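Pasting as-is:
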Amino acid sequence: MALLLGRILEISGDPFQDGLDAVTIRTDGAVHIVDGLIADTGDAAALRAAYPNDDITDYGNDLICPGFVDAHVHFPQTAIIASWGKRLIDWLNSYTFPEEMRFGDPDYAAMIAARYFDLTLANGTTTVCSFGTVHPTSVDAFFNEAQTRGLRALTGKTCMDRNAPESLRDRAQSAYDDSKALLDRWHGVDRLSYVITPRFSPTSTPEQLHALGGLWAERPDCLMQTHLSEQTDEIAWVKSLFPKARDYLDTYEQTGLLGENGLYGHAIHMEPREIDRLSEVNAALIHCPTSNTFIGSGLFDMDGLTPRVRVGLATDTGGGSSFSMLRTMAAAYEIGQLRGRPLHPAELMWLATAGSARALKLDDKIGRVAKGYEADLCILNLSSTAAIAQRADRASDAWEEVFATIMMGDDRAVRDVWVNGNRVQR
């Protein structure tokens, strides 16, 4: 049993809907951990008296947060992050596809999976939802590594049967068969979840999309992830490939790939009908701000979409230019400024924790420092560098301190990480 002392980020609701007071910071708090779960939280003095035999870790003025939840990543792109000068389609052809060809080698896939989790844990991220490659070995490597570390993690085999190199294509039937076999092998094992994963409509024939829609109908408990309306030239490409579709979303709707358990990455350039349908089915959109700026995609409409749909936050490694959810929150703030609606640090922290957990349908398990939740925690030092410390010294309240770390922080701000109740050795 462990007792952690410090300030605590407490979440009681959605700050976009319930007001900023839905996320607060408790001073002189404590977190009591038993068997991988948060068993109690509250006043430090009271919990020290209640649990005198706990092993105590005193974090002082550091902030005890939920571990960050990254709702859309491509772990196979770890080695090509921050590659220069391409938009989406050129990015795929120049960087992504050549790198993904290497994941047919189980040893290479395992090496990158280990590297990826080293990097994300160093940045305080304890749950990720990732695309694999077309190779089942990529899924096995990811889940094996996550399982070894006790992580809650989600992924799926990426399915493509056209507009990709021959060595990265499967077929409609093999995509169904491979996905079903991987789902049966991994879904619900320990803290792992399988996600049905068509990359996006341009790289799947209607036959493949229908096959994966059929699998999802058989296993509606699974999530389904894909991409939607990331760039304008991508949308034009979709229209040329699916001339009978009403819009981009319709390519998924017609094939059984629209639903409440759907995760739609980017979603920048949407038509009113698409927003209406996503709202009607209570689907989730995943905002990927560093990717949207790095690849030149556009500005996500956070203020317009949060009243209508569930929204999560993500790095989109490696189109996104950082493994850090702090940097991702900073980019979300900057995009909000460009749209005329700056996000409050309470909203940003919620998006990176409880909001992303809700998008992944895991908000009853992770994303909050609260009794009964899994003890995945990130401890933030809010004075981690000289530049941040001098700003924090001038802060008028705790949120100003947090905001300085969001805007200027990196892995140096992550003092400690706890996964499933265990302190991660870094």
